[in-house]
């Protein structure tokens, strides 16, 4: 146990907080733009990801191996989720980026970047016979320097890279904690001969009693 606390004390705290801060900033940035685009499925996933990052940091600093393991499991799920998003926006198989799958079929909203990407110009024209009804306007986007699906793919690829780094980190920390737990003697601590000393001290009164 002493070695565990020594390991935690020797961790470069600025680097540790920098890494977890980077994870949180990337997750919050993703959350903000998914909120703006009303992407409900990614919003829920981002929320769980933020909670998992907090658990990972807390588990490391407070010696909670289960929290670190939970973060490692979530990191693998997070990688899988982002791989799905990449396939979704690149329309792999039967997936279509124009579907309302990410909004739980509640609305037809698309990614916020589809109308607000770099260089995009949003033009809106009312549908004939429905003037004044903005909800029935025809919206066209032109001049985009990069298509929105590639921006989303870049976001997901960045999340995958960070999640893989977090997964490796969590596995390393968990292995250190596990090794220390296996080497710890729960009866006599780290003393290699605790029972010998106890028996040696307790044997004197018994010897005197039998002698008398």
TrEMBL record:
InterPro entries: Na/K-Atpase_Interacting. It is found in: Cell membrane. Signal peptide: none annotated. It comes from the Eukaryota. This is Sodium/potassium-transporting ATPase subunit beta-1-interacting protein. The chain crosses the membrane at residues 40-61, 68-92, 157-177. Interacts with atp1b1 C-terminus. It comes from Staurois parvus. It holds the Pfam family NKAIN. The lineage of its organism: Eukaryota, Metazoa, Chordata, Craniata, Vertebrata. Its main location: membrane. Keywords: Cell membrane, Membrane, Transmembrane, Transmembrane helix. The keyword Iron-sulfur does not apply. Belongs to the NKAIN family.
């Amino acid at each position: 146990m002493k070695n565990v606390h020594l390991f935690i004390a020797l961790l470069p705290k600025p680097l540790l907080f920098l890494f977890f801060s980077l994870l949180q900033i990337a997750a919050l940035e993703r959350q903000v733009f998914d909120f703006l685009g009303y992407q409900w499925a990614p919003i829920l996933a981002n929320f769980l990801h933020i909670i998992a990052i907090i658990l990972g940091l807390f588990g490391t600093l407070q010696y909670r191996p289960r929290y670190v393991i939970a973060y490692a499991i979530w990191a693998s799920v997070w990688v899988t989720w982002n791989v799905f998003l990449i396939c979704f926006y690149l329309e792999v198989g039967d997936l279509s980026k124009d579907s309302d799958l990410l909004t739980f079929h509640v609305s037809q909203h698309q990614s916020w970047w589809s109308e607000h990407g770099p260089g995009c110009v949003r033009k809106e024209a009312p549908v004939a016979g429905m003037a004044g009804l903005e909800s029935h306007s025809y919206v066209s986007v032109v001049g985009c320097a990069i298509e929105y699906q590639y921006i989303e793919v870049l976001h997901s690829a960045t999340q995958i890279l960070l999640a893989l780094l977090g997964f490796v980190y969590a596995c390393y920390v968990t292995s250190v904690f596990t090794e220390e737990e296996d080497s710890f003697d729960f009866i006599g601590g780290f003393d290699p001969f605790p029972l010998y000393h106890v028996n040696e001290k307790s044997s004197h009164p018994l010897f005197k009693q039998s002698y008398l």
